[in-house]
């Protein structure tokens, strides 16, 4: 099983996303792309507003888990390609922290695969987020 490094330091930029998508324009067997962008929300928690999330992970363990998720998704769905990237470090409210991109010959397959992937990533990936509030206090994030 080939392991991919899924981590990007800091926010995932619009240029990175655009370049990742553009690479697939010449693949004529693809009929659909589906994309999920996870963005840091400025949630209000107990009267405090989240200004950023600091993501940490056990990188080797997380990359292994992402490889398992990729393999299971390729086994379950007819996909041409798949990209998963997650931020490490501090990502400000409004910035992208998760980029998931799938391509398939068929749109419904791409849509089903993307939903499966995002739900599996949220449930199984060993990535931890510390919510940093505007007053610079923090708390560990509860997945939502």
UniProtKB/TrEMBL annotation:
One Pfam match, given by its short name, reads MoaE
Catalytic activity of the protein: 2 [molybdopterin-synthase sulfur-carrier protein]-C-terminal-Gly-aminoethanethioate + cyclic pyranopterin phosphate + H2O = molybdopterin + 2 [molybdopterin-synthase sulfur-carrier protein]-C-terminal Gly-Gly + 2 H(+)
SUPFAM superfamilies assigned: Molybdopterin synthase subunit MoaE (SSF54690)
Q: Does the keyword Transcription apply?
A: no
Enumerate the InterPro entries for this protein.
MoaE_sf, Mopterin_biosynth_MoaE
Asked if the record carries the keyword Repeat, the reply is no
Q: Which UniProt keywords apply?
A: Molybdenum cofactor biosynthesis
Please report which protein family the annotation says this sequence is part of: Belongs to the MoaE family.
| Protein name (record) | Molybdopterin synthase catalytic subunit
């Amino acid at each position: 099983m080939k392991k991919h490094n899924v981590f990007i330091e800091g926010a995932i930029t619009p240029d990175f996303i655009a370049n990742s998508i553009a690479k697939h324009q010449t693949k004529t067997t693809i009929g659909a792309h589906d994309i999920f962008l996870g963005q840091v929300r400025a949630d209000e928690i107990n009267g405090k507003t989240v200004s950023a999330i600091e993501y940490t992970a056990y990188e080797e363990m997380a990359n292994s888990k992402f490889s398992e998720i990729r393999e299971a998704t390729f086994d379950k769905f007819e996909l041409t390609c798949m990209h998963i990237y997650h931020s490490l470090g501090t990502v400000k409210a409004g910035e992208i922290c998760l980029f998931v991109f799938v391509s398939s010959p068929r749109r419904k397959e791409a849509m089903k695969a993307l939903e499966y992937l995002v739900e599996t990533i949220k449930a199984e990936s060993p990535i931890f987020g510390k919510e940093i509030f505007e007053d610079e206090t923090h708390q560990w994030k509860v997945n939502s």
